[in-house]
Specification:
By secondary structure, the chain is α+β, with helices and mostly antiparallel strands. It has four domains: about 100 residues, no CATH class; about 70 residues, Immunoglobulin-like (Sandwich); about 70 residues; about 140 residues, Nuclear Transport Factor 2, Chain: A. About 25% of the residues lie in helices and about 35% in strands. The protein is built from ten helices and 22 strands. It has a four-stranded mixed beta sheet. Strands 7-6-9-10 form a four-stranded antiparallel beta sheet. The protein is rod-shaped, with a radius of gyration of 60 Å. About 25% of the residues are buried.
Amino acid sequence: MFCTSCGKQIEDGSVFCEHCGARQETAAQQPASPQSAAPGTGAGPAQPVQPQVETIQAPIGGGAPQNAAPRKPMSKKTKIILGAVAGVIVLVVALKLILSSVFSADNTITKFINAVRERDADGVRSVATVYLDQMELTDEALEPFFDAFSADNATLVSWQENLLEQKNMQQYQQAMAGMATSDSSSVGMLTLVDNSNILFDSYKIQIRPVNLSLYCGYDGTTVTFGNLEPMTVTNSTSVTILPGQYDISASCTAESTGAELTMEDSGRFTYDDSYDIYFDTADMEIEAYSYVTITGITIDGAPYTGEIEDGMYAYLSPLNYGSEVVVTGDCFGETFEETFIAGDSYYVSVSYNPSEEVILMASDEASQIAYDLVMALEGHDADSMAALQAQYPDNEAVAAIQTYFDNNAASTYTDGAVFTSLEAGDCTVSAWAYSTGIQLEVTVEMTASGTDYYYWSDYTEGTGEGTPFTDETFTVTIDFTLADGELTFTDYYYWFYV
């Protein structure tokens, strides 16, 4: 049995509790045995006695039922455990409140805007990430970002407003859904990302980088954006950079000309875009005349290794404006140089006037023919012409002059002058290189006496009278073209002085 006062176990039948001393009541009365009616009363059989059941009433206002067994006291260990649990709960709640405040959307947005305004790279990194982790927020990567936006107050205000709108939209969507869910709403290049969990609220600013498509006509071009590491691009290359203001530089060595090409530019990039790497260059088409052979070309001192077609033609592209192009050539064994400046002219021709010695060496025959032709023609000497033709039977120039001689009267050779005496002096040869060959201009100085007729028609009709002249000096010139080793008669004229 148990004590009705303290609840501890005591021996059955105890009148007093050995622990607290309280008097014990009989737990239950035994039912009375049925009694026979008293003799002589005449009563019938005795009625059974109903057991008495004690009713326990709860005290007014709650509490333990009266006469209920008292609860066992809480142990010290249990109290310690319950206290620790309560402390942890309080700590978690406090930590949640603190962290939710630190990483709240409003605080994150404000810290990001201030960090950009103050060009604080560490501050940006503490609250921002790059979309899909496409690049790292290094100091070098953030520099152009700051250059573009740190002093742009209108943009910073717009960013802050848009990010707060994103926060409000996320909260609305969460309320409508009846539960908090991670979400992000993108506005422009910045996204507010909700990373909240059951412990605390957490937000990050996500920066969407610029995927820039670069186009360049020269493979192996080195391009630098701001102070980022230089990159090598091909004809079409995609690069990832942060939005920002960039100083752009590019350089390459043109394979066709060996020219060192450079360019500098600047640009502001906000969203995915394309950029053409353009080198402002000049072209040059070089052509040499016949009998002039191009033996070499240098561009700003560097040898040109491209093709020179038949030693006569070259197309140089690309070139830097102002580059010095030096062409080395050969004409009849004489070497020469000619200098051109890229950009001055697209088409340039290479020519060379050989020295008199070279021309005389290369065309002794032409000189002798011209001299003999002058003597024959000006001297009205048909026999000399015939002898000349016999001496040079296959020479086209002599044949042409002979035809001219045969088809005209002897007097017409003098163009209106009749010579009574004729003496040839020095013979001078000049030459120019053309695409059709070498033009030879053979000039013979003459001293003559005779009669000058001023009117051709009068002389040819034999009715005019001329003015006599004695020992006057004039020059006779015969033009030839020397091509493939053969002379061709071109023209014949003279200047007469009285």
